[in-house]
Amino acid sequence: MAYIVTQVFSPKEKWKKLAKPIKEQILQRMIVNLSSLAGENKVQLIAAGQIDSKMPRVADAEFYVIWSVAIDEMSKHISQHLRDSEWNEYFDVVNIGGRALSVPQFADVVLADLNS
After folding, report:
1. How many domains does the chain have?
2. CATH of the domain at 63
3. Angle 20-39/74-84 helices, nearest 10 degrees?
């Protein structure tokens, strides 16, 4: 199964103070960096968007991105490319990752944890 990386993030004050042309340059660098990984079939973007604040128990973040990668080591490449594009300098980012499981596999993992 694939390794899934989810990132939730919110802009820092530093981002909010930037002029729009500078923001566009930073976003363009991020797009180029991550597009190179996607072009090499190392990552696949599953979804990206703004977090719906009306969801119950919602994460304290403004945006999300969900990636699928072939192996867990590749998640390091996503993080590296975001660092290279200065993303972490302008956004508070939380990374979540793990191997994608079927529902029965997930149930086994949860039950195993309850037994320990």
Report:
1. 1
2. 3.30.70.1030
3. 150
